[in-house]
């Protein structure tokens, strides 16, 4: 692979190199050339087997995209819970040329961006995406182009780095306790913790948060460096273990009225 513009993460041991290379394989031709076409000195050779492989690799220097996995988190609105719809699973941004590339979850199954720099199935690069929901989110504009859909599950929990994103119907009282390898019972002492309806929460190591209908353990340790990008307006809090996202949504002027939700939506 040294003659191409494909790089691999040397620290990654998730997949063997042979499998990584096979993921880039697009097409393969196998041809048998009879001996009559290629005379040889050895009479035991009946022909030559030619194998040609084509990979999703290039020797040219291509534009570098910064990739992000997008996670639409449900939030309450008018007695129901909704979340952004039709969002890409992975979005790549070229900050120099202001280009966009996006993958659905199905399209990204053949990709391993943590290990290698390219993907066999690469969607087209979008050069004009000013009139999109993603553009309005990145430019902190009113979300007039974003579509929403109703979210019917009672509890939404997703791990993001060292934190958990959580969305529930109402604020919920919980208790935190240390994990113990013994079966000894003990009482809780002054460890009440109330979760907002939408929040980013951090669970200390070797601790579990026990709530009415669910429990959350400490997030697994990341295998590599992680980066969290938070809006400045949600960082002004003394409680760094619980970031109230619903309070930020309620005070935001970016949602004068959710698009594509009519007045009779709840009927």
**Alpha-carbon distance between the two ends:** 59 Å
What is the helix/strand order? Answer: HEEEEEEEHEEEEEEEEEH
How many β-strand stretches?
Answer: 16
Strand arrangement, major sheet: 9-10-13-16
Shape verdict: extended
From the alpha carbons, calculate the radius of gyration and give it in angstroms.
Answer: 26 Å
Beta-strand content bin: 25-35%
The largest sheet, given as strand count, sense and whether it forms a barrel, is: 4 strands, antiparallel
The helix content, as a percent range, equals: under 10%
- The overall pLDDT, averaged over residues, is 76
What oligomeric state do the depicted chains represent?
single chain
| Unreliable sequence segments | 259-267
Alpha-beta content class: mainly beta
Number of helices, where a helix is a run of at least 4 consecutive DSSP H or I residues: 3
